[in-house]
Design a protein that fits this description.
Layout: H1 7-11, E1 14-18, H2 25-38, E2 42-45, H3 50-56, E3 63-68, H4 77-89, E4 94-98, H5 101-105, H6 109-123, E5 127-131, H7 139-151, E6 156-158, H8 170-178, E7 184-188, H9 194-203, E8 207-210, H10 213-236
Parallel strand pairs: 1-2, 1-8, 2-3, 3-4, 4-5, 5-6, 6-7, 7-8
Helix pairs in contact: 4-6, 6-7, 7-8
Length: about 240
Amino acid sequence: MAAELTEKYVASTIDHAILKPELTWDDVDRELDVAAEWGVFSVCVRPGDVAHAVERLAGTGVAVGTVIGFPHGTTSTAAKAAELRQAKADGAVEFDMVVNIGALRGGDDERVLADIRGVVAAAEGSVTKVILETSLLDDEQIARGARLTEQGGATFVKTSTGFAGGGATVPHVELMKANVTTTQVKASGGVRGLEAAAAMIAAGATRLGTSASATILGELRAREAGEATTGAEDSSSY
């Protein structure tokens, strides 16, 4: 599958994650510059970094997204909506909310659905993604979470925060994809190289959350350069 991917296409699927709590603004700036250099689709930054990221990335074509209720999903719907509205005012255009994990595990679908709908309503048409935190869920809960995400009107259902001891897996991406019709799937957590990225795309993910954008795209660039060199050598033999 990796052989069919191009650097341009894979870059267009990447939300470059800049979310670690220990990052200084100098660290954030370095990661924002990586995102701009490689031309990824967007960055996903901490809520307090949104305005700065928007300013630094102005003119690069890289969108700015952020997280809502991160990483545990236990804040109230009203708090999540308020956090989203502030981030939107600061310039964010995409919003990755963490589902109420305990409610999902406990089978309280009405509460989960109301939480998703409240955040989607606050987004007022902007792209929303619902993080299920698949490492804490069984297959039935993942499938049900994906269906609730679609019912709630979110744009994407997403695997993981990357902060719960597990990340995206191919079976989980496939399971989520099988349980939605129009909602897209974002694979996030542990996508650290080209092989993993290609596997997630093959499984049905149309967006990747990763802090390893340079590694993934660097592998593709090197492969494409090698193919170009091989092609030139082959043509010169005729």
